[in-house]
Amino acid sequence: MSNNNTGANLGFEDKLWMAADKLRGTMDSAEYKHVVLGLIFLKYISDSFLEKYEALQAEEFADPEDRDEYLADNVFWVPTEARWSFLQGKAKDPKIGQLIDEAMTAIERDNKTLKGVLPKDYARPALDKSRLGELIDLIATIGLGDAESRKKDILGRVYEYFLAKFAEKEGKGGGEFYTPQCVVKLLVEMLEPYSGRVYDPCCGSGGMFVQAIKFVQAHSNGNGNGNGVPNGAKRNIAIYGQESNYTTFRLAKMNMAIRGIDANIQWADTFLNDKHKDLKADYVLANPPFNDEDWGFSKVKEDVRWAFGTPPAGGPRKQKDGSTINVDGGNANYAWIQHFVHHLSPGGTAGFVLANGSMSTNTSGEGEIRQKLIEADMVDCMIALPSQLFYTTQIPVCLWFITRSKKADAKRGFRDRQGETLFIDARKMGSLIDRTHRELSSDEIAEIARTYHAWRGEKKDGNYEDKPGFCKSATLEDIKSHHYVLTPGRYVGAEATQDDGVPFEEKMAELSATLYEQMRESIELDAVIRKNLEVLGYGE
Fold first, then answer.
1. Which of 154-163, 228-237, 337-346 reaches the highest mean pLDDT?
2. How many whole angstroms separate alpha carbon 176 and alpha carbon 269?
């Protein structure tokens, strides 16, 4: 069994989660998420503040109540009424909800970067105040913001673990704010964002940015800044993001703040109000909503971003019998792809997650857009991932890697790979961590990334070779002969025949997921045919 330690759980997080989850009572997980994460944030900045406060007390001429002393050290100023010791002392007070709301308001008032970010709904009647008090006592048992805890990234581990558990609890009805850590890590390891502008236009809770910083940290020789982030990481990477869901946007802002990451994250719909219109990013990392049908096409149908063809409108349309169908069978997948391409710098590369249907669909002009992208020699690598990686969907997904240039780049160690595309079939990788969810191990992530890097010509990763059943370097002619379909299984061929050791139940689960995706595409095609027949007068 390969090393399987991509998750944040290192021992105590699961116990903390179980204890916190018991306190949830009848509250919906989507609501409780903000209750818990808000308190974790409050405990972190209060710990950090207290450590600085005590240090100033020990200095002869320093004033521990001078806010500028904290700002100079990048420590959030915490007013008296918001300090953890004060709130914990009031944990059994029936007005504890109101006191926390006032604490959050005071912190936002005195720290402009947090304005409008923190949850302030702890006084609502639906929130059991005795359970809230118990939760405060529970979180009080963890050190989060002191130097030793920051060094171990205790806060990061707890925050990441809780985000994952909330995504699991919410399932398909929520959790869109969270991309599984192993998928994020794979994207970042593939792209190697050592320096430059990193962009995620659908950033959720900001996991892509956190992992990008961690990547730089792992490859940095510089000294840290005390928040688990090396000084060099902040200088080398500039972060830009956008998120349409306001609640999720606030999660992202909190996620960046607790890690000391300075990020330009905006709240707005990326298609309808692109807040980074002039940005040309060196790296795009994204996990856009899967197969999003109602994405606002009518307001941006003539947009400059659609350089390779107008994406399908998608969206519901009411039938005479009261039912609805997708207008043209399409969705936002190819709008997202072109948005990513539009924002790439001349040497930039984008890595992103899409549903498997994106690799082969011919619905509503999507096939033509894909063909143009391929003929422009922009598709660098395609990866088919195993099923059951996501909490939000069981359908199979893939990773796309698109680049503006495949020319040789001596500085980065890339060979000239014009006219070539790498295909990797990783569907048999990963192992089940429970009955319904699978995870890629660190070793598997490293193997996939090494394969891509070796193919690009990076000497540190050895020489590339095609491996039947796993990877294949294909030419544009090869892709053309497959009618511009980008499914890796069509190119890598079959591995040497032998028992692959995959249990029958797992094979059936993957087959079911694949059939579901094919059925969805068939339904969409049927809707398009019906619409065309109606236009011709045969649908009356």
1. 337-346
2. 15
